[in-house]
Every structure is written in structure tokens, then in C-alpha cells.
Amino acid sequence: MGVTSVLARWASTSVHVLIVEVPGWDESRMLLEAELDRRGWRVALSPADADLLAVCGMPGEELRAAFDLLWNQLPGPRTRVSVTTSVALSALLDAAVAHLVDDSRQRKDARARSRPAAAEDQRPDAGEHDGMDHGGMDHGGMDHGGVDHGGMDMPMPGGIPLAGGGDDRDGLEMDVLNVPLGPVLPHWPAGLVVDCVLQGDVIVSAKARVLEAASAPKDEPTTAVTDVAGRRIIRLCDDASNLLALAGWQTAAQNARRLRDDALRGADIADHAAALDRLRRRVERSVLLRWSLKGISLKGISLNEISLKGISLDEIPLKEIGLAAGARANTGNATPPDQATVDIRHRLIGWLREAAVLAGPSSGTQPPAASDSDRARQAQLALAALPELLRGTDLGTARLLIAGLGLDTAALAQTHEQTHE
Amino acid sequence: MSEPIVQVSPAWAVLAPLALLLFALAGAGLNGALVARSVGRPGRSGASAPLAQVARLLRQRRQVTVAADVLLWRIGAGGLVVVAILKILVIPLGPWTLADLDVGVVWFNTMDVMIWALFWLIGWGANSAHSLVGGYRFLSLAVSYELPLMFALITPAVAARSLRVGDVVAAQHDLWFVIWMPVAFVIFCGSVIAFSSWGPFATAVGRDIAGGFLTDVSGVDRLLILTGRYAVLTAGAAFAVPLFLGGGGGALLPDWLWSIVKTALVLAAFVAIRHRVPTIRPDRFAEVAWIIVLPAALLQVLVVAIIVVGS
Amino acid sequence: MAAYVSVAVILGMALVGIGLLYLVARATSVSPKPLTTTPYLSGWMPKEHALSRFHARWYPLTIIFLAFDVEMLFMYPWAVVVASEGPTAIIEMFVFLGLLMVGVVWAWREGSMRWV
């Protein structure tokens, strides 16, 4: 066949996938991620890098609009799949490949969309959303009588206005940008949107809300894991993996993810605890990580309210179950329990320790199952605390903080209307 | 180390870019193998990943963002490969070099400063918030790594009493510079990783900003940038050889082969470190770079200068 | 002179190579015409252009960098002659560098290397 089909075949051995997750459907996402690893596919960080848009779950209206916009941003060859069950996952992805390598179909698709997305995209929620966010900072630029922006008749190249100014913390006038973070970003809590006002890469102010799913997954277990402890381990590993990835430590993040996938498959429990503990020690020992995360903490958040209803450190009989006798001396006693949860690094280590204990042989330590209303309340408090937490931080720190919260957006999506100022 | 460095006819210049690209491809292959291993697949399956990636990007449609600064954007994208190729011009392969400039060390330095502009242009051109943050992040890192790098480059020149790369190699006839200027060597390697926006210094393309200056680049433009990053990393690894590792000097093997082997080893080390350490954030790094690394580089120059004057 | 011929040859090759690559990509990509799209903003339309006066909070550092960078002009020729000039060259240069470092340390104590 021709050159193009050869290229298409080669290209299809490593498809780049933009994964978008609907709150409550994290299990679909995790199963998909595990499948991608098996196939040697890669997760795309942005639509420009993606061939395949994988929607995990049933999005609500606003989420669907965001996903559709992203779909428009895939350069092509492109295809999309909707992952709502693990059953036909492999067949689904095989079909996606067939779609991607079909050259004539992809060329037709490319020809069909030569018009810019900016012109054609009218977001259904545009009016409402505008009303919410445009009030203050960005158009405040207009009343500085602009040397470079001429007030109301400012030029609008591409139909988009120029940035307006605003005073920074030193009283310098600098342009501000409205940059929404989420609902789709790598390693981001599903459905979370943080509308940020940025100066440079510093967040001047932020508002957080959660976009809803159209429906929650049906309550039938899709994996082997049904017990509370198992689910908690999976969640802890997932959170830890995301935080490690955002800290730029790929091997450790990958390690956490594989342990998560093992748990998801229901792997041998004893091995698992030891592996989790090894990872925990590795994270604890890393001088570079300690330095890199130093001083990044969830201050200002009432910890008693927010700390998840797992097991507190003091209740864990570490020695009894034969796990790292020195561990407690390293972090447990050296730092007061408050700080142990407030500091991002300690939180990360705490997650891994808790996961290791839960996976340990003395499975008598079943965590009390948090009720739905409890989980929702905790997530709500975290969401409410976000704006204050993020103010004045740079984007990198902000991402670490949000990952460190371990926000359970699924719990929130079950109640509704969560807009916080 | 037997033969002196000779300058070869410009006709050979045709081969240099090919050699560079082959090295870059090998580096990408190693990276692919390591990534495959980390997800539990056989390393062999990952080694061909770069080829799949090239095919993918050649097939992918290019994109421009609304009201982008396309000219500057593309200059940034294409420039990386050009800069890397110009860098290897002064790097000898065994006894042969394409351009034995009497300011070879400065030439390399000039080219790596060009990278500042190129990465920033890529970040700026896209008219995209993540991309812009990425471009500026690189600059904030660059003001920290560049001075230590310059002093690390100057150290072998002090010992060789010349800025000519051929003289630097010749001066290592008895003893490789890495032995008595280890600090400069380490700083040089770190800076190469930094100016390639690689490994722990890859904050400008970080996951926290959705790929930074790569966010909105697709198709052949992306291919050029990714190739360019590998190419500057390779050029940096190759320059460590004449500067610190005795050029083509070594037992048994011919000089040219030693150059290749040493370059491959340094490059492999750079690639291997990529995912193994957490990110070093520019704002954390600045203090360390200026208050610890820079004085260390200065002390290294001082020690070398004293030894050279004393001998 | 041959060295600079090599420079020209290699530069020409690089540019031609890039041009060829673009030609190849025109043929092999699913569309020769670039897609015009809005920048990636997590699934939202941009409210304004990103190109703006970016608040580079590390600007004091750039000034210090410039001061030190200009010094490199002296460093290159110094590196070549220091062996023949002897101890005076070392003392002079390192007194100068020491003064610059004092400035750097002062700026550090003033907090110009912390911006987050």
C-alpha cells in the first residue's frame, strides 16, 4: 500500500489519548489507563497531542460542552470513544484504531472542518458564565484609561479581546488573564473547575465549582474490588500517583499507578502491602522531593473537618503488623500530627502508609465506611477552602495543593449546586 | 589519544547532521524502552516508539491558534534543530573536526544562549496561557543555570590556555579534565539537561501546565520541537567528550570510535535520569544556583587557574 | 576559512532539511492546511488573548544576571592568557568576581531570588 497507510499503521502502535473524566466515574478512567499501559499507548497532556478523546462516564450538560470544545481542538487524525463499562474496553479501543488508520475517512473529516473553532462555537452557557466571572478583575482594566487599550473600542483580533490590566501585589500594573483550570487537565480532580485570574503565573483570585455528571455509574461492581478497604487503597494510590506526577517524579508516579492497578485487579494482598511500603520509604527518603515540596501545605484548612475518615496515625499498630518499624520515628513522632496532614509531602507519605496498612495481613483494620453525606461534607469544605488556599500561589504550587487535597468530586456531584466564592 | 585534531573538508559537513539525528533517535529509543519498562512492557517494544511517534506526527494535521504569532512560533520550533546542528560543528569526532574555530568554546556557548530565545518564542507564539507560562518558566530557569554553565565551559579553556576545542582535547593527553575539574563537569552536565528542558529541569513543559510550550503544537511543528530537544541534549552530551572526557583518547579502539562511545554513554546517562528524579522548580532552584552552584563553579575556576599558573 | 564554509554548508543543509520535512508533512498529513483552533484552556473558550504583559516576578534576578553576564566578556580572553600572565591575573580577576559575588549575596539577602 501507499506511504500514508504505512505511516498510519506505525502511528497506530502508539496512540495518544486525551482522557476526560466525569465525576463518579474514576473506575472507568483507571481501567482505561491500565489498558493504555498494556497497549503501550500514551496519555496526552493536551488536545493538540491527542488522537483519541476518551470520555469516561456520562457527562452533564456543561461537561459535555467542554468535551465538545476539546473534540474540536484535536487536530486530526482523531476519533472519540465513550467509556462507561469495562466489559468491551478492548474492543472499543480496537475499533478506535481502525477508525484512526482509515486514511480516507480522516481526510474527509479534516476537509469538513476548515472553519476556525472560534467562529462556530457558541457555548450554551456562555452568557451565564460571563456574568459570573467578568464582574471584577479583567475588565477593570478599562477604567485605567489605557495607554495601550483604548477603552471600549479595543481591538478584538480573532473575536477575542485583549487582556486588561490590574495592580499586582507590588502596585505595578500588569495584565491579568482569566484562565479556567479544569474540568480537563492532566492529573486533575474530575469535573472540578477553578476559574483563576492570573498575573503572569500567579493566581490573583480563584473560584471553584464542580460540574456534574448526567448520571452516576450503575451500582454493579465492575471489578473484583468491592470491600471498603480495597476501594480506599485504590483511591489512595491514585491520589498519590497524581501528586507524584505533578511533582514531576514519573517513575514513582508510575510505581503508585501500577500498585493501584494491581489493587484494581485484586492482586496478592501480602505482596501488595510490602510494595506499597517500599514506595512509601522511597518517597520518604527522596531529598529532592522533600526540597521540592517544602513549605507547600494546606494551611488555613480546618484539618479535623477535612482529614478523611480513615485511620489516624496513632491508631495504627505498625509494629504489630510488621511494617517498617522506623517509619513512625521518621515522620510520625518528628512532626506533630497536625502538620503531618497539612504538609503536602507528609500527606503523600500518609496516604501511602495508610494504603500499606490497609493492604497488610492483619486486615482487622477495616476503615469505617464514611457515609455519603460525610464525604460530601468533607469535599464541600475542601472546595470552599480552595479560593483562599490558591490566592497568591503560582500555577505549579496551586496544582500541587489541589492534588494534595485529594478532593472527592464524586461525593460532591451527588449533592448539587456547588459554587463557592 | 594519539593524533592531533585536524580540520576536514566542508564536504564532510553533510554527514554531521545525519550523525546527530541518529544519536538523537537512539536517545529517544532508549527513552522509549525505559518508559515501556516502567509500565511493565518489554523494553524492546518501547525502543521503536520514536519511529511510531515520527509517523504519528507526520500524519497529524498542523494547527495554529487564533491570532497566534505564527512566524515567531515557527522560528522557535525550527530553530532548535538548527542550533543543535551548529553546536556539533565544533565538536571533533576522534581526530577530525569540521570547524576548529579558535573560539570553539565560545561558539558552543553562543548557541546555547540562542535556546533561551527559541523556547521562549515557542511559548509566546501560540497565544495560549499554558504555553506562555511555559516559555517564561524556561527563562526563569535559564537565568539560574546559564552563569554556572559559562564558568563550567571556561574551566577547561583555562587549563588548555585556549578556547579552541582542539587545544582542549590535546591538553588532556595525560589526564582527563573530568578528574581534576569534577565540579565543572557536573555543572556542565546539569546545565545541558537544563537547556534541553529535560528531566528534572523540564518544568517549562511540565504536566502541571498541560505540557507548557508544547500545549498547542501539533503535527510536524511538534515533531521539530521534540527532535530539537533531543538534538540539543545530544549536542550537549557530545560536547562533554572533548571538554572533559579526553576527546577521542582511549586504549585499543580508534579515536573516532571512542568519541562515539563516550558520547553515547553520556547521552544514555542523561536520558536515564529523565523520569527518575522529581522536578526541580525554577523558583526553588534560583537560590541554590546563585548561592551554592555559582560560587562552586568560581572556586573550580580558581583552583584550576592556580594549578595552571603554578605548573 | 574552511571552517566558516562548513558553517555555511551545515546551516544550509539544516534549513533545506527542515523545508523538505515540511513538504513531506504536507503530503503525509491528513490535511495540508493547518487547523485553526482556540488555545487549550481545559475545555473553555479564551476570554482574552494570552499575549499580554506577563508578570515575570523574577525580574530582579534578570538584572543581577545581566551584571554578571557582561563580566563574561572579560572571562573569555582572561582564560586564554591567565597561564602566561601569572598570579596577578588570578588575583585581579578573582577580586573582581568576589566583588560581584558580594553583590549577589546582598541581592539574595534582600530576597530577590525568592519570588513565590
Order of helices and strands of chain A: HEHEEEHEHHHHHEEEEEHHHHHHHHHHHE
Distance between the termini of chain B: 22 Å
Low-confidence stretches of chain A: 116-152, 303-337, 416-421
Q: Specify which chain pair forms the largest interface.
A: B-C, 78 and 69 residues
| Poorly predicted tracts of residues of chain B | none
Secondary-structure content class of chain A: alpha/beta
Shape of chain B: globular
Strand runs of chain A, count: 11
Strand content of chain B: under 5%
Q: In percent, how much strand structure appears in the residues of chain A? A: 5-15%
A few lines on this structure:
Chain B has helices at residues 15-38, 43-47, 49-59, 70-88, 104-125, 129-160, 165-170, 177-180, 182-195, 219-244, 255-273, 282-310, and strands spanning 6-7, 63-65, 96-97.
Task: Tell me what you see in this structure.
- The complex is a heterotrimer of chains A (421), B (311) and C (116).
- Chain A is of the alpha/beta class and 421 residues long.
- Chain A has three domains: 3-119, Rossmann fold, CATH 3.40.50; 125-212, no CATH class; 215-420, no CATH class.
- Chain A has 19 helices and eleven strands.
- Chain A has a five-stranded antiparallel β-sheet with strand order 6-7-8-9-11. Chain A has a four-stranded parallel β-sheet with strand order 2-1-3-5, sandwiched between helices.
- In chain A, strand 1, helix 2 (26-39) and strand 2 form a beta-alpha-beta unit.
- Chain B is an all-alpha fold and 311 residues long.
- Chain B has one domain.
- Chain B has twelve helices and three strands; from the N terminus they run βαααβαβαααααααα.
- The two termini of chain B are 22 Å apart.
- Chain C is mainly alpha-helical.
- Chain C has a domain at 53-116.
- Chain C is flat.
- Chain C starts with a helix and ends in a 7-residue tail after the last helix.
- The interface between B and C is large, with 78 and 69 residues.
- Strand 2 of chain B pairs parallel with strand 1 (35-37) of chain C.
